[in-house]
Design brief:
A hairpin with a 5-residue loop joins strand 2 (23-26) and strand 3. This protein is of the alpha+beta class. It is globular and about 45 Å long. The termini are far apart. 34% of the residues lie in helices and 28% in strands. The strands form two sheets. The chain has a three-stranded antiparallel beta sheet. It has a three-stranded mixed beta sheet with strand order 4-5-6, with helices on one face. It has helices at residues 18-21, 47-69, 108-121, 123-128, and strands spanning 13-16, 23-26, 32-34, 79-89, 92-102, 133-138. It has four helices and six strands. Helix 2 packs across helix 3. It has two domains: 1-45, N-terminal domain of TfIIb, CATH 2.20.25.10; 47-138, 2-Layer Sandwich (GMP Synthetase, Chain A, domain 3).
């Protein structure tokens, strides 16, 4: 953290039991989920689904921020379909992400500029840069 930065929020979550048979609960009680492996019959979600939800929410906020700065109106039907892949290769597990963004009513070239600026601004995109394959696609 640089000397000019300020802490805005700290999320605190306790996870017990891992992805196969676990649960995660935030210290404030607002998140309380059971975990299961992808494709499992067990009730619960998996870390990849949680990452897809978190990243797409953050990215949509980044798009909205850039749009406001550029005085571009976004419609209420703006949405992001996020896909997070858990992959396995010789070197181990890795993730790949696809953010499919719909910006109805925004000219394609303008919308593409919003996506590029949002990808540079979004904290999830910054954290993954150089570590995770990320594709942002305008749909």
């Amino acid at each position: 953290m640089s000397h000019t930065s300020r802490l805005l929020y700290t999320a605190k979550v306790r996870t017990v039991g891992g992805r196969e048979n676990g649960s995660s609960r935030s210290f404030d009680g607002r998140l309380d989920v059971r975990l299961s492996s992808p494709g499992s019959a067990r009730i619960g979600t998996n870390p990849e689904t949680l990452l897809a939800a978190a990243w797409s929410a953050s990215f949509e906020s980044a798009v909205a921020f850039v749009a406001r700065e550029r005085t571009i109106a976004l419609g209420a039907d703006t949405h992001i379909d996020a896909e997070v892949d858990l992959n396995l290769a010789d070197h181990g597990y890795f993730l790949s992400i696809r953010l499919n963004v719909s910006l109805p009513g925004v000219e394609r070239e303008v919308a593409q500029g919003l996506l590029e600026a949002a990808h540079a601004l979004c904290p999830y995109s910054k954290a993954a840069r150089g570590n995770v394959d990320v594709a942002t696609t305008l749909i």
